Structures are given as structure tokens and as C-alpha cells.
Amino acid sequence: MSTHVATDHKEEKKNPLLTGETIHVYDVNKVSAGASKRWLEKGIADFKVSPMTSIAYGGIYVLVGLVLAFFTWNNPLYLVSMVTGFLLIGPIVAVGFYCMSRRIEEGGRPTFLQGFDAIKFNIISLVSFALILGFLLIAWTRVASLVVALFFGSTTISDDLIATIASNPQTTPFLLTYALVGLFFAGAAFMISLVSVPLITNRKVDVITAIVTSMKAVVKNPSVAISWAFIIATLIFLGFIFGFVGLAITLPIVGHASWHAYRELVSERDVELK
Prior knowledge:
3 strands; membrane; transmembrane; DUF2189 domain-containing protein
């Protein structure tokens, strides 16, 4: 029998009840300042190995984005909330790309169906984590709507969002509050998901171990985590401004690169308790 433990290289405390078991310890590594750039370069390299497969997989989410945009286009605030929400659930969306990069790392060539196989590998933890991100997404949309109502009340903003905001004296405090709230939710999602989903799709870990490991990775590498979050946000934003179609390229690159972030930030070892 074995259990999983997340650690940052501190000495493990022995539990007499676990004597004779093997503990899979996940260590959080300190990475160099240029790590985020290195991950991006590796992500681009993986994309080049199998570009059509990556684009085909990313195309699924482009279609989903276009459908959602169609139904929210008349209300720009809903569209903005949707874009921010996409950043929250991005780690789950990128599952297929993690598996493709793992296959490339092993010396093989990735296939389209590998992403779907990954879902079955550790489905309980993956679904549990998806539910957590889903809760954050729902909370974000509710709070975002509350912020809009707080500053604009019953003002109609569905026709011309820019004109409405520009002519309203509450514009500056609204934008600051909206940005801060969005940053809070995005930061929370990023902190618990930096390495969680790649770890879940690569090892049979429970969702708590994955989240704790991810949070420790952020705490141990704050500057790198911030720069990596900025790169992810920039790539996703570029994907959106090109009518969602750009996501077919930027999303795969982010997904592939996130796999390499996980591989550098987390190492593992087995410890037998005696």
C-alpha cells in the first residue's frame, strides 16, 4: 500500500500507523529566473513536433468559444467575464496537451485520442479539481455581476459598453474594482493549478496533494510564477483578440509549456517507512 505526500524538501514526519508503507513524496524545486521563458520555448518546440494534432485539439475550444461569444456578444460584460473565466478553467482545458508533451518526452509521436485517454487515467481527482475550478468560475461571474450592479445600477449597457462606461462618472472606480476582483480570482485559480492538473494526469494523486504541491510551487518560486502567469494571460489574450481563432495556436503552446513547467517544478521519490 502507498500514500502520497507533497513536500518542499523538509524532513517527513513518521507515522507509526504507516510503518511498512511506501510514501510517494513530491518535492517542489526552486527554478532559475529564466524558467518561464524556457518553458515557453519548450512548449513551442512541442507544438512544432505535431502542429496539426495540437491545432485540431485546440480547435475544439475555438468552436466552444465562438458559440459562447455568439450568445453573449450583445452584452459585452458577459463576454469579458467569459474571457476571464476561460483563464480560470484553462488548466482543465489543456489536459490533452499535457499528455501530448509527455508522449513527445518519451520519444513517441502524440495522437489526437491521447488527450481523451488522460481523462480516464485519474478521473476522480480530475473531476474533483474541475468542480473546484467550476466553483471559482461561478463565484467570479456572480461577483462580477455584483460589481457591475454596484456601480451602474439599472443603467443599460448592453448596446455600447464603451460609450456607457466612458460617460459614467463611476468609470475609474468601476474599472479598478473589476480588475482587482478579476485578479483575485485569476490569482487563486493560478495558485492551485500551476502544476495540479499535469500532476493529476501523470500520477495517481488525490486532488488535495495536487493542490498543495501547486501552492508550494508558487510560494517557492513567486517571481517565476508571476512571470509565467503574465505569459499565459498574454497568449490567451492574443488568442481572443483574433476572433478566438488564435486560440487554436496559443492554447496548445500554453498547454505544452505548462507540462514542462510541471516537470521542472516537481520531482518525486519513494520513501519506505521503517
